């Protein structure tokens, strides 16, 4: 009996045809930790209709936080069918409920009070447009709702004292609304990126021990992923938040366009189709998702003076207001170009990295004129030629240049230094799937916040949370959108 209440799409199609003269209602949500507010909401809905269908969001589309859902889709469905006021439960494997509304054509679509004032994702508007086509009506429940995410954060999430202090402070001062306003401002921006492209290859396999003749690890390959890296990945991140992105780069047109094909607000300025795009190959244990080895297939391109001349000429002509330099120390930024960059008066944001591709010799100190700089602790140490604490050096540099500077320290959190002030923020995500691209993600989001004049105390918090979400996926497999990010922020700031 209970099992029959969990219906398939085919069964969903038949409900309307078999019940033409009955009022049908639809409730849609995650229903992860079902509480009294949910029960009252469903009771309210059932009283107004003859048949109540409850659709739940499938696991892969639950994006309120990395640790959610607590209960998988099957458990959530089985829980709901035990209520006598719920007639049918449907597990929805789509991002929105538009498909259900088209199929079921409900008379009423029930939503909680929180949707009346804020539609973060824009999904509700899409659902309502579909509902109108079939002459359905939305009813906002009058019952007092609670946040299941808030319950999880308060009971199951073991926040540290420093984390609690920041979350409580931000919640008390209603900073979530302010952050939303800041992201509204970024929608008007145009960003221009100059940088080196990288292809990130991931090879997943099962470890089958050592080879019989040599002391080498044997990996049985079962999956391969080709992802955008370097300046292309940074470009994609920016495009989620701004009006337009221009990217000055090089490499195969086919490869670049393939990575950026779903982004309508990106303009590609290809400096040379002949230059080779460098590739990193990572081998991972498919069972534990641990990195076994990385191969950097670096065949450095000879710096073509004509390409540099072309690049300088283009930037002079375009005169970008917000110029982002993605310098991975591979083969694009020679002395002549850096000298040109130094003379530009417009805002410049430098993403310069010391890594295995450049043997740690690509230092921020080769630049002297910039509006913002974000580096990890190791890169700051290399640039200052100092083994221990560099915080005082960063403070001094910020005073001299009168600009904000960021230092990221992995799990320890990050600091934003501005003149005499030091703003620290811990991380809020315990487990990271892959750190690849997290530094880029932090740089992108904090650069945007600096451009639009965000409160300095909020910037490391925004940077840590956005980079933390990015780290829940391999490399740049998934670019965190504005709606997903704000949804996550709302969940932890309801703390």
Keywords:
single chain; 495 residues; alpha/beta; Rossmann fold; UDP-N-acetylmuramoyl-L-alanine:D-glutamate ligase; 2 domains; 9-stranded mixed sheet; 5-stranded parallel sheet
**Order of strands in the sheet with most strands:** 10-9-6-13-14-15-16-17-18
Class per helix and strand makeup = alpha/beta
* CATH architect. name of the largest domain: 3-Layer(aba) Sandwich
- How many strand elements? 18
- Indicate the CATH topology of the largest domain: UDP-N-acetylmuramoyl-L-alanine:D-glutamate ligase
By DSSP (H or I, 4+ residues per run), the number of helices equals 19
Average pLDDT metric:
87
Using only C-alpha atoms, the radius of gyration works out to 26 Å
What amount of the residues lies in strands? Answer: 15-25%
Which residues sit in consecutive blocks of at least 5 with pLDDT less than 50?
A: none
User: CATH H level of the largest domain: which superfamily?
Assistant: Ribokinase
Which descriptor suits the 3D outline? globular
Largest sheet: 9 strands, mixed
Share of helix, binned: 25-40%
CATH class of the largest domain: Alpha Beta
Structural domain count: 2
Oligomer: single chain
CA-CA gap between termini: 38 Å
